[in-house]
Amino acid sequence: MAQLEIQDVTLNFGGITALALVDFKVQKGHIHALIGPNGAGKTSLFNIISGIYRPSEGQVLFEGRTLNTMKPHRIAALGIARTFQNIELFQQMTVIDNLMLGRHLHMKTGLLSGALFYGRALGEEQNNRLRVEEIIDFLEIEKHRKQPVGSLPYGIQKRVELGRALANDPKLLLLDEPVAGMNVEETEDIARFVLDIKEELDVTIFMVEHDMGVVMDIADQVTVLDFGQMIADGPPEEVQADPRVIESYLGEGE
């Protein structure tokens, strides 16, 4: 069943076409990779799904609901969470506090009870803290839980950002280059966590990634963009053998 549908999406910036009639589906429970050269339109598509951009033409559907005119916070409330290529954490805050920020959509108490921290607000805080601790345990970052994020190694910071997205309890997780800048060990760790998120947490993954080893190892489906146009969409082994993909992306630099 398609959870996310990109239907003939076009995005224009003045006289520049960033995306042209892009059309594909992300199946529920899959890891779906979006690849292509720099400037192919991958992040622009993520920004449309997240509500940062609005498509010039076409539409985006999530579980049958049109996202085109929704604001980012409404889209997040539907169950779509995102990480970014460049780490977007509060560097002076602890790991716990950064993950608690990811729970803000689940905090329903009013201003007065929240400020005085009693009754429902106290119970809500405890429940959210418990969920954050579960995510910390899941991502194996227990020993860093009370440390300021800015003091942590890059690979651990990427896990924290992943954790903050998971704190929203998403149905669909958008990962923007989750292993960018990582060494081999860190890359293997994140790839393992992505698989665990899919299998253990039942979250659909839609990721942009340049590391083709990771893509071919863990993706169920791969879509390829080149200069804003979709040139391939299919299982990894088929996409990897597609002459257009080899020419435009996989073979570049040869």
Write the layout of secondary structure elements.
Elements: E1 2-13, E2 16-27, E3 31-35, H1 42-50, E4 57-62, E5 65-66, H2 72-78, E6 80-82, H3 95-101, H4 111-116, H5 120-138, H6 154-166, E7 172-176, H7 184-200, E8 204-208, H8 212-218, E9 221-226, E10 229-234, H9 236-241, H10 243-250
Parallel strand pairs: 3-8, 3-9, 6-7, 7-8
Antiparallel strand pairs: 1-2, 1-4, 4-5, 9-10
The spatial strand order of the largest sheet comes to 6-7-8-3-9-10
- Tally of individual helices: 10
Q: Largest sheet, described in full?
A: 6 strands, mixed
User: What structural category do the secondary elements indicate?
Assistant: alpha/beta
Under the CATH scheme, which class of the largest domain?
Answer: Alpha Beta
Percent of residues in β-strands = 15-25%
Radius of gyration: 19 Å
SSE string:
EEEHEEHEHHHHEHEHEEHH
The residue ranges in which pLDDT falls below 50 over 5 or more consecutive positions are: 110-117
Number of domains: 2
CATH arch. level architecture of the largest domain? 3-Layer(aba) Sandwich
Oligomer: single chain
List keywords for this structure.
alpha/beta, Rossmann fold, four-stranded antiparallel beta sheet, 10 helices, 39% helix, 24% strand
